[in-house]
UniProtKB/TrEMBL annotation:
This is Aspartate aminotransferase family protein. It comes from Microbacterium kribbense. The keyword Cell division does not apply. One of its GO terms (molecular function) is transaminase activity. Pfam families: Aminotran_3. Keywords: Aminotransferase, Pyridoxal phosphate, Transferase.
Length: 452
């Protein structure tokens, strides 16, 4: 293994050969991809076998909140592996119990139970199952422009093109429009109007779908891969109110935004709202060992005191994953991670991206919170025509590919999706590296300005 930045071209060729020979990759036409062989990483940087290093501004799918190779997480996994590598979920285990307790301690009052899963999709899958069992209803409402995972129900909930090829999916899902102030589906002209019209639209959807048939509404607290859509003031509180009025379970999908991404344990805590079920994964242990779960409100948990919950997974609450989760809590508390994210977001990233948006003709909008941001690239700031069309691929996507290539050439690994560049570095990134990364993005955007 390469643990420092040195070129090793024969290792590069060997990794490429095995990968292209035998690894079947996600979401891709296999003959058209060229995955980067990664040799190692540390903190907010990773490097390849050819001697190039990259600032990781995507945190490996917004997952690696504590960065690459965090020594505390690595040590916790090693210690646990030496003690008890695995144990079935129907037995009790110290790190599993400790992690569940610590999650409940940072959740709102009235959440005392955690069901562990292997990742985010199956967390959503099981949250929906709980809501259906609890309400005796079947239908679930989910937003267009959302991603909830790639298992049967989770992909059915998903409101983006990843669902299309997987249809017909779980038929008991209906989609609605969430708020998107920059491209308002409700033709609203202010955040207040966006909230009011968005809630009116959701209520109409509930009424027309039949309130008595709806088990749950699932919402990414801040929509992630579909655009870093921060809900306007009052929207989530209004969703809570509608759920209460119609007896519907409110599931907050916190898979991408939970555990510090916006400077809160759970993102909904910044919006003064309390859901009924909270799903999480990724940041809970920075994905060092797969882990996700559902935090369950007492009201719903009590339903399963005497009625068996019909679900389980062999790896539920895997000790190696939970040990990394406990270590995550220790690092967050010791190093003041939540405070640092809030500070870096308001002092460094927000002002710089807004300044970039003012200066670059191709940047139509900059939005976000904490270390979770997106800029939206356009051909015309006035009409807001996207730089590349929705669901662009091939030649259509070339202008965005040029921006991504310019970032990589300058040593930054970007997260681009359709006409957006997302900014989501590890929460432990040095301030100097953060500023250097924003400088790289600033320069790379000239490749987009050419298309204005
Ligand atoms: N929910 C959200 C909001 C996500 O962003 C993701 C993954 O990116 C998922 C669910 C699915 O998580 P996983 O890939 O761990 O199944």
């Amino acid at each position: 293994m390469t643990d420092t930045l040195t070129a090793d071209l024969s290792a590069d060729a060997a990794v490429r050969a095995d990968d292209r020979g035998h690894v079947f990759h996600s979401w891709s036409a296999q003959a058209l991809i060229d995955p980067l062989p990664v040799a190692g990483g540390a903190g907010s940087t990773f490097w390849d076998y050819a001697g190039n290093s990259y600032l990781d501004f995507a945190s490996q799918l917004v997952n690696l909140n504590l960065g690459h190779q965090h020594p505390d997480l690595v040590a916790a996994i090693q210690r646990q592996a030496g003690r008890l590598a695995t144990i079935q979920p129907s037995m009790a285990n110290d790190v599993r119990g400790e992690l569940a307790r610590r999650i409940c301690e940072v959740a709102p009052d009235g959440f005392e139970k955690v069901f562990f899963t292997n990742g985010g999709a199956d967390a959503n899958e099981n949250a929906v199952r709980m809501a259906r069992q609890f309400t005796g209803r079947r239908k679930v409402l989910a937003m267009y422009r959302s991603y909830h995972g790639n298992t049967a129900t989770a992909i059915a909930l998903t409101g983006d093109p990843r669902r299309w090829a997987n249809e017909p999916a779980d038929g008991s899902v209906a989609h609605f429009f969430g708020p998107y102030p920059y491209r308002s589906p409700f033709h609203a002209v202010s955040p207040e109007e966006e909230t009011a019209r968005g809630l009116e639209h959701l209520e109409q959807t509930i009424v027309l779908e039949g309130a008595s048939t709806i088990a749950a509404v699932i919402i990414e607290t801040i929509v992630g891969t579909n655009g870093v859509l921060v809900p306007p003031p009052g929207y989530l509180a209004g969703v809570r109110e509608l759920c209460d009025r119609y007896g519907i379970v409110y599931i907050a999908d916190e898979v991408m935004v939970g555990f510090g991404r916006i400077g809160e344990w759970f993102a909904f805590q910044a919006f003064d709202v309390v859901p009924d079920l909270i799903t999480f994964a990724k940041g809970v242990n920075s994905g060092y060992v797969p882990l996700g779960g559902v935090v369950i409100s007492d009201r719903i948990a009590a339903h399963f005191d005497t009625v068996p919950f019909p679900g389980g997974l062999t790896y539920s609450g895997h000790p190696l994953a939970c040990a990394a989760g406990v270590a995550t809590f220790e690092v967050f508390e010791r190093d003041g991670i939540l405070e640092r994210v809030r500070d870096l977001g308001t002092r460094v990233v927000g002002p710089r991206l807004r300044e970039i948006a003012r200066r670059h003709p191709s940047v139509g909008d900059a939005r976000g919170i904490g270390l979770f941001w997106a800029i939206e690239l356009v051909r015309d700031k006035h009409t807001r025509e996207p730089l590349v069309p929705f669901n662009a691929s091939g030649a259509d996507a070339a202008p965005m590919a040029a921006v991504a290539a310019a970032c990589k050439k300058a040593g930054l690994w970007p997260f681009t999706h359709f006409n957006r560049l997302h900014i989501a570095p590890p929460l432990v990134i040095d301030e100097d590296d953060l500023v250097r990364g924003l400088d790289i993005i600033d320069n790379a955007l000239h490749a987009a300005d050419e298309h204005v």
